[in-house]
Amino acid sequence: MAQEQYRQAVAHYNRACELQGLQDYEAAIACYDDALALDPSLAAAHSNRGAALTALNRCAEALISLDRAISLEPDYAEAHFSRAITLLMQGNLPAGWVEFEWRWKTAPGRALRRSKNFSQPPWLGAQAVAGKTVLLYCERGLGDTLQFCRYAAAVSQLHANVILQVQAPLLGLLQRLPGATRVVGEAEPLPDFDLQCPLLSLPLVFKTSLSTIPAPGKYLGADARKVAQWQAKLGPHGRPRVGLGWRGDAGNPDDRNRSIALRDMLQSLPPELHYFSLQKETTPEERKLIEAHPHLSILGGELHFEETAALCECLDLVISIDTSVAHVAAALGARTWILLPFNPDCRWLLGRDDSPWYSTVKLYRQSRSGDWQEVLARVAADLRARLGFELK
């Protein structure tokens, strides 16, 4: 290939990467196509093109690009990881979990392995664990830990002792998790153990498919004493009680797509219900909005996960964006409506309003990227249609 032609291909590729970083996926794909027309051997262009197509929910096309990248570079970890996300989004969980193990060969995965620095061997289901102690450890966000900690019970049923290592904010809530012999924080010294496995590898260990997801109903429980305290604080159960979560962790790179402005949410809510903030923290502007809203209450102080779980047990419905609050409510078996961006996390799949992971969840998806108004209008219509739903 002529040097000038290669230089032009790289220029198109670099421009495509810039556009993809700005989430202008259609324009990025066009630039990747220009690059590949000049140099079809650019594996990175095929891989990134596939990721851009996945971001547009065009999964079948994405897999063609990702497979091409992998045919050019069989050990291309990022392409395998993108392929995992795409397969999981399609609902092909068995194949997706296999590909998902390539995360350990990406830069973030290698860094996490170095930080853990376990001397004990990994466990992916090959060895018998009866009578052994297995460490299950968190590796990503709080929502991931809340979703996949359910597998502790399955490991325990193999007659293993299970140590669960979780992020510090989840320590109190997960102390009562079925199957966990002991729950420790990430910063705590670890007791002795024989084998170790990350939480997000457990679906691979148990060959999880859409029809074999464990505990889709209720697998977490709130502290009964705290539930009673919240019931006393809330008083007689009059109007239906609805918990709200509208904002996620600002440090999450996708937060700008998943969070909703409180002002927009409040404008859509029927006034016949009593709403409660489930945000751990609120900004001064949000507090002003809450104080001015006659039907929305903020319950004072920071809501830690144990308190949030107990409060959710006292509510009739939780409405939340895709954040840890939604996972807490769903894992408790509470009625939960989750509001999703156009391109959702792969755990929520595509084209359905229910979740095989949580039987009490209803999903409300954006039909156009960035359009929360249409989602909130559907939520409001469903709330009005169910004003008489049974109170707890």
What does this structure look like?
With 392 residues, the protein is α/β, with parallel strands linked by helices. The chain folds into 3 domains: 3-106, Serine Threonine Protein Phosphatase 5, Tetratricopeptide repeat; 118-205, Rossmann fold (3-Layer(aba) Sandwich), CATH 3.40.50; 224-385, Rossmann fold (3-Layer(aba) Sandwich), CATH 3.40.50. 44% of the residues lie in helices and 11% in strands. It has 18 helices and 10 strands. The protein has helices spanning 3-21, 25-38, 43-55, 59-72, 77-90, 93-100, 107-116, 142-148, 151-156, 171-174, 202-205, 224-234, 255-258, 262-268, 284-292, 305-312, 324-331, 372-385, and strands spanning 133-137, 161-166, 182-185, 195-198, 241-245, 274-277, 296-297, 317-321, 336-340, 361-365. The strands form 2 sheets. It has a 6-stranded parallel β-sheet with strand order 7-6-5-8-9-10, sandwiched between helices. α2 runs antiparallel to α3 (43-55), α3 packs antiparallel against α4 (59-72) and α12 crosses α16. The mean pLDDT is 94.
